[in-house]
Amino acid sequence: MEIRKVQLTKGKNTLYKLEKKYHFGPFFRYLESITESGVSSDDMIPLFALERIKEIEHVSGKLSKHNLSANKDILQLIYSLSVSLIDTDPKRYWALATPLAEETFYGTNAFFDLWKNRLEEQDIQDQMQDEDTLNNQEKLIYALIFDRLYGLPAKENNTIVYHHLNEKGEIIDYYDLNIDFKFVDIKPKKELPKFDLGNLTKNSNDASLFDWNHVVNAIKIEDFELSGFTVLTVKKSSLEHTSKRIQSILLNLATYNYHLFLSDLEKIIAPILKGRDTIFSLFPFFQLNGLPFFDYSITNKSILISEAYASNSYTNINPQVANYLKHPHLIFYNTLDAIKNTTSIFDERIKASGVKTYRCIPLIHNHALSGIMEVYSRQLDQLDNETIQSLRALVPLLSQLSYDVTTEFKKRIDEITINRFTTIHPAVQWKFNHVAAQYIQELENDEQNAHIKPVIFEEVYPLYGAIDVKDSTVIRNASILKDFSFKVKQLALLIDELSRDGKHQLLIDFSKRVEQITGSLEQISFDESMVKIIEFFRKDVQPFLEAARREFSTKQAIIEHYAKHFFTNRETGEFYRNEFESSLWKINHIISKELNHFNSFIQGNYPSYFQKFRTDGIEYDIYIGESITPQQTFSKEFINIFRRQQIISMARIALKTHHAKQDLPIPLETTQLIFINPHSIDISFREDERRFDVEGSLNIRYEIIKKRIDKIRVKRTKERLTQVNNIAIVYLSDEILEDLNLSIQAIYDMGIIESTIEHLRLEDVQGIVGLKAIRLTVNLNYRDFS
């Protein structure tokens, strides 16, 4: 035991304004309350302690922070009374601290030794709305105020979690610091503030769920004073917090990249392992087409499943591995001194790998294998009983996790198969299944008119969007002509090289032909130019090269050096076009990724039909309605939510493509267009084209408008509606404006668009009159997005 000051808080904030009296009055009153009712055998120790304290105080004076050393015996008494005299664990983490536990003044050697480590304080995991308004000690004082003075006990316990970091900043242990306020008095310095509890909470169903921002405004810490001391105890809690973090992965599994998930899991498990030499390996048991499926980039840490024990062909699994997966069992090797190793066909493999201790635990979920967990070390004494017991405690969670990973894997395969290889979207597959089942039923009943009924969805609301790469045709054409110009220059250089020995009729005639073709290209359209260029290289350049090889036999190397530039060669002959296509691919990849996020948002809220069309940019159609998702109640509010998210998605696309522009070989820019149809339409599946189309003549107008607004201009101007770094929203009816304006205001409040909002009338196009538009400007300085 020793007297020592250790700072426990990570920040003072407003705590310095709080008056704190450092004395032991509350503890003495506690002892006196025990002995007041008379002396019994249970009261002997408190009575003795009280008398002994009075003796020490008589000699050394009242106990305070200035005479701790003189009163060390009292501090030892407090320790003896608060812990069992029988339990003499030298590793006991115990200390006395200031009234708000900012700083210790007495404690066990083990406590102070622990605090020499690199311990990082975590925020208290409370139920209140926080947003980093308060630090941990400030939260504790407010909880104490509500409990002692208002009779509102907080749901949270008085525990602060610390994690122990290694030199790499990785978590290797967790510790819970419990703070006992039993010997702390709290008093208001003036009349206790009164407030309406309803004004401090956002949840009318639970009055204890305070909003800290409101609490801080209603109650000031500096209006209170504390006296006494706190008792601190610490327990190692790695297993508990490891379990919580695994549960967090379970809740967010769908958002994980699989390799990132495994990397995070290894870090989460690390605190319960002994030393960095202990390796943890977990691989969920994937099955594909009824056979085990292994990804060696994932299983490369496994001893059981390794390249030496499984074939690269997933249809040809090593028989020993296959048999183990059919009949999984526990395997341990040098893990417990008193127990023999299990006899396993993998013993030689384990031994050959240099592993000294090894344990393999099959993970079982719903009576079936969901995964394999292996823990091993190339050092002895790493897998002790404590580690093994902790791992066993995690087995149910890891079994569930493995099962969920394999389920997610299967789901992703199904989504890819449906989205990439078939035209049946998941949201509408039920309808196709139903129609197919009806048809099979008719066939089984020998109905003469058995036929597949049309797949129609009535009264669905369409959302249309188009992201176009500005001037893509012009840039592509210019790239192609640049490549041609480059090839012509190479031809000129070749002619110069071949002319060094004097003029030759072959070279004179071909030079005239080159001048003729380059001159004619300036007078004709691009499409005609392309025809002439292709003909020129096929009918003129190719014969010229063959003739040159015959007549200039000593210059074969020079001819071949230049010849490689003249025909379709993606490394040398189409340099500028390759730059354009590479830039276009990267832009479309950004767009597709963002639209996938948008689609995930839609499917997660109300499953709907979503289809994309690739051009130089991307167009998409979304159809939403109860006829598509009859199992879920439909509300028009979904339309407003999705339209708002559609605008946000377009803004994110504009931002991301803008920031990507500087890294592209050719800087491409995008325009964003949305069309809002105010009413529902009917759609049907066209079996011949394997896609959905509008149903009925009244709904065809929707398709006509979509096709004619991509290059539409602002009325009485030559200005195109769609502009770079803008979002154009075309509409026909003013009835959608109220909801649309609310969405735009909410998006402006996010900061993702600027305050400039243009209301425009559009030129009349063939068959369409009265179109209007809103044009939004994207805030290019916005940074708060992933």
- Proportion of beta-strand residues: 15-25%
Q: Biggest β-sheet: count, sense, barrel?
A: 9 strands, mixed
* Mean pLDDT figure: 81
Report Rg: 38 Å
Cα distance, first to last residue?
51 Å
Number of distinct beta strands: 24
Provide the helix percentage: 40-55%
Shape: elongated
How many helices? Answer: 20
Structural class: alpha+beta
Low-confidence stretches: 310-315
Q: What would you say this structure looks like, in words?
A:
This protein is an alpha+beta fold. It has 20 helices and 24 strands. The strands form five sheets. Strands 16, 17, 18, 19, 20, 21, 22, 23 and 24 form a nine-stranded mixed β-sheet that branches. The chain has a six-stranded antiparallel β-sheet with strand order 3-2-9-6-5-4. Strand 20 and strand 21 (691-694) form a beta hairpin. Helix 7 (238-251) packs antiparallel against helix 8 (258-269). The protein is elongated, with a radius of gyration of 38 Å. Residues 310-315 have low confidence and may be disordered.
Jot down its keywords.
alpha+beta; 41% helix
